[in-house]
Amino acid sequence: MPARKAFAGRLRTVRTGAITVVALASCASAWLWAQRQGAATNSATSPTTSPAAAWRAPEPAGASQRVAERERMVQEQIAHPRDGRPAVVDPVVLQAMCTVPRHAFVPREFQAHAYADSPLPIGYGQTISQPYIVALMTEQLRLRPGDKVLEIGTGSGYQAAVLAQLSPEVYSVEIIRALAAQAKQTLEQQGYGQVHCRSGDGYYGWPEQAPFDAIIVTCAAGHLPPPLWEQLKPGGRILVPIGGVYEVQRLVVITKTADGHRRSISLMPVSFVPMRGQIERR
Ligand code: SAH
Fold first, then answer.
1. What is the domain-level CATH number for residue 68?
2. Burial (CB count <10 Å: 0-12, 13-18, 19+), residue 275
């Protein structure tokens, strides 16, 4: 049975702030899924077909492995954490976290810990983020069907794979060439060949593919690189950890309003590896 279906029936309570909504999450999930696929059904009969129209979320190669561990990870760490951190409630994000085989993205020696509530080393002094943070950041991006999303800091490729469950148009930039190559290979092996990866300094974004509906930065920056702001569409959102290595960093949501103004909201203290490259020379 696909992991997507195995999970759907078990997610029964969804917390929304102070309100607990008891939802037949299989229905909620199916409804959201249908919303995302809706464009496909509608435009299949129309003469113009967008990339989103023909798109179906991938079923990764490792989806049938370690399913119970992933379900437990999602339930205990993400959907119903007991330590007071805010729950992630979007059923589509929870489904994505349940589908992507995190163990396939971590080095062999750490695979036994792939579903633990923590970041893990991926080599070159870098880490794959804690599953909860991946889920929270993905939810905060508020992706809609067909949204084009840019990630800065591909690392293992895990966050990119989670995004690829939600959007057909994922672009990811990694500054360490060997990590970029490794991530690309893992993504392809898992069936995420549609994710566009490149090696380079993410400070400059990906100008040839701009503008983006959403941008996620998975390394900590002292300030938001101006090119990323320029490459964000009006109405779009950027998730970025702001702060230095030895400071308390804050996970910040930056929104570009329809008339181009900037709004920032600080979500929570976080700890990310630092952004390298051009930002260090500023
Ligand atoms: N999202 C990753 C975790 C990334 S850790 C995952 O899911 O595994 C942060 C990554 O940002 C590291 O791989 C680091 O090499 C990369 N990084 C740091 N500075 C960067 C820059 N200027 N441009 C692109 N990537 C950068």
1. 3.40.50.150
2. buried
